[in-house]
Automatic annotation (TrEMBL):
<keyword id="KW-0732">Signal</keyword>
<feature type="domain" description="PDZ">
    <location>
        <begin position="128"/>
        <end position="188"/>
    </location>
</feature>
<dbReference type="InterPro" id="IPR036034">
    <property type="entry name" value="PDZ_sf"/>
</dbReference>
<dbReference type="InterPro" id="IPR005151">
    <property type="entry name" value="Tail-specific_protease"/>
</dbReference>
<dbReference type="Pfam" id="PF03572">
    <property type="entry name" value="Peptidase_S41"/>
</dbReference>
<dbReference type="InterPro" id="IPR029045">
    <property type="entry name" value="ClpP/crotonase-like_dom_sf"/>
</dbReference>
<dbReference type="InterPro" id="IPR001478">
    <property type="entry name" value="PDZ"/>
</dbReference>
<protein>
    <submittedName>
        <fullName>S41 family peptidase</fullName>
    </submittedName>
</protein>
<feature type="signal peptide">
    <location>
        <begin position="1"/>
        <end position="22"/>
    </location>
</feature>
Length: 519
């Protein structure tokens, strides 16, 4: 694999050929195709933002998987000085509006799901911080609305997940805690907040300090004040060995694929996983459950590491997965063996000998999580346990998110801004990929039938896996009523708001080896 620095230099050099050349009189004349751009107003007063918008258009045209949907149709036109700004970018106020517009163009020639829903602009350094450097600045918890017997047609706010080392974790907040008030405000129920588009709750969750009154699962009440601070990310929510039906079952739950390697050095995440799998081996684990239910993805290299840990020795050095890229990148020879997007091969690690593996998934399981699942499918029995959800139209058996594409980050204009353009797709050794509609679980259960913490054997999703290991059946107790450890009853109608701030990194599959050095 080439060095990251060379990768960035080559990309910038190749694109520089397009950006630096003056207009060639021999260039063909192409009719302007602006796809409904509003040209009634221009935005040229901020030269820094002008360059941001220009750069976004250039990179999308050259790097996007959907390059053919991005104007101009004649790639050589972007070599002409000022062409992109004159014809396109000056009519957009910000870089973000350019990104949204270009993503929208990819719908034109694709199916209902097979288009760019993923590319984004990172002005805050969240990706490099959380994935590469394993640091975050947040409260470190995810919240959601859940109907209960007590709330009737309304729904209360609950904590769904707490990250280790975070302010929320240090304060003792846990999955299953009900939030009674935020900053003294008790009008945080679903119906009250829906009427104002969840503005108040979002403002609290995006603030610097938060005071929560909590009803614990045992019925006690607590008040906690937490401050959004920088902390070292440990995405492992739980790991343990369970003993079921004469089997030693390893359980691993983690929330993101933090990189195991940064600028050639092994990271704390690598050491954490090494310790966990060494423990599995020493306890003779012969079944494995990997909990990816809230895992939106992360570093590809971490998915590769875990695949090498989980796969049977019979994989040898066979292909783990291969890439697909657009014709521009393909013409650079980067799909060849040993190149930046050459095929990735297995290199079995450790002594676990598993014939099957169970994955716990939801509609939030995305990208690098889906990659890990997909690359193992040709080589062992892979079971997925998903979730059911009640809707006004009835029960929906959910699939995973559906993101078989990924990106590498490129700094644009200055080092503070990185652009992530969906630039590659992945396929396992059997040619399986393109799961834009999501991966389909083998079974779907009600996640909150038993609202327990991660790793508890009677927690709904884990219980289904353990039941299959024991009996060959995923079946769990039927019915839509659930209970907490305190005996509270839940209706399985999860009212999750997508616009609730939940401190979760954007779903992504990041080729971090391509962005280790960006200066």
């Amino acid at each position: 694999m080439k060095s990251s620095k060379r990768f960035i230099v080559v990309v910038l050099s190749v694109l520089g050929l397009f950006l630096a050349c003056k207009k060639d009189p021999a260039d063909p004349v192409e009719p302007t195709t602006t796809g409904g751009i509003d040209k009634s107003k221009t935005y040229l007063t901020n030269e820094h933002e002008n360059k941001v918008r220009d750069s976004i258009w250039y990179y999308f045209k050259v790097l996007s998987l959907w390059e053919k949907d991005i104007p101009p149709a004649d790639l050589s036109r972007i070599r002409q000085a000022g062409y992109i700004r004159t014809e396109y970018s000056q009519y957009f106020e910000t870089g973000e509006t350019v990104v949204d517009y270009l993503k929208g163009l990819t719908r034109s020639s694709e199916t209902a799901t097979d288009y760019d829903r993923y590319s984004f602009l990172d002005r805050a350094g969240e990706v490099s911080g959380e994935i590469q450097n394993a640091v975050s600045t947040s409260f470190g918890m995810q919240v959601f609305y859940l109907q209960t017997q007590q709330s009737g047609t309304n729904a209360d706010l609950y904590i769904r997940m707490v990250e280790r080392n975070s302010p929320a974790f240090a304060a003792g907040l846990q999955r299953g805690d009900r939030i009674v008030s935020l900053n003294g405000n008790t009008n945080i129920d679903y119906n009250s907040q829906q009427s104002e588009n969840f503005r108040t709750v979002n403002s609290y969750l995006n603030g610097g300090t938060l005071t929560l009154q909590i009803a614990k699962v045992d019925g006690s009440m607590e008040t906690k004040t937490i401050t959004s601070t920088r902390y070292n990310v440990d995405p492992v929510m739980d790991s343990r060995v369970l003993h079921v039906a004469g089997k030693n079952v390893g359980y691993l739950a983690f929330s993101s694929f933090v990189t195991i390697e940064n600028q050639g050095a092994k990271t704390a995440m690598y050491n954490r996983f090494e310790q966990i799998f060494a423990g599995f081996e020493s306890e003779g684990v012969n079944e494995l459950v990997v909990d990816l239910r809230y895992n939106g993805g992360g570093a590809v290299i971490t998915a590769e590491y875990l695949a090498d840990r989980i796969a049977p020795a019979s994989v040898g050095t066979n292909i783990m997965y291969s890439y697909a890229v657009n014709d521009v990148i393909k013409s650079w020879g980067w799909l060849n063996e040993g190149e930046e997007f050459g095929p990735v091969r297995f290199a079995k690690k450790g002594n676990l000998q598993l014939s099957r593996v169970y994955f716990l998934v939801t509609s939030g399981t995305a990208s690098a999580s889906e990659l890990l699942i997909n690359v193992l499918r040709p080589h062992m029995q892979v079971y997925m346990i998903g979730t059911n959800r009640n809707t006004d139209q009835g029960t929906v058996a959910e699939k995973t998110y559906g993101k078989p594409v990924g990106f590498f980050g490129l700094p644009i204009v200055d080092d503070a801004i990185e652009l992530y353009v969906s630039s590659f797709k992945t396929f396992n050794s059997a040619g399986q990929g393109d799961y834009f509609a999501g991966l389909t679980p083998n079974a779907n259960v009600w996640e909150f039938t038993s609202f327990r913490n991660f790793g508890q054997p009677d927690e709904s999703m884990l219980a289904a896996a353990l039941n299959h290991i024991s009996t060959g059946s995923f079946a769990q107790t039927s019915g839509r009523m659930a209970t907490s450890p305190a005996g509270n009853s839940f209706i399985n109608k999860e009212k999750i708001r997508g616009d609730l701030q939940n401190n979760q990194l954007k779903n992504g599959m990041f080729k971090l080896r391509a962005i280790k050095e960006v200066h």
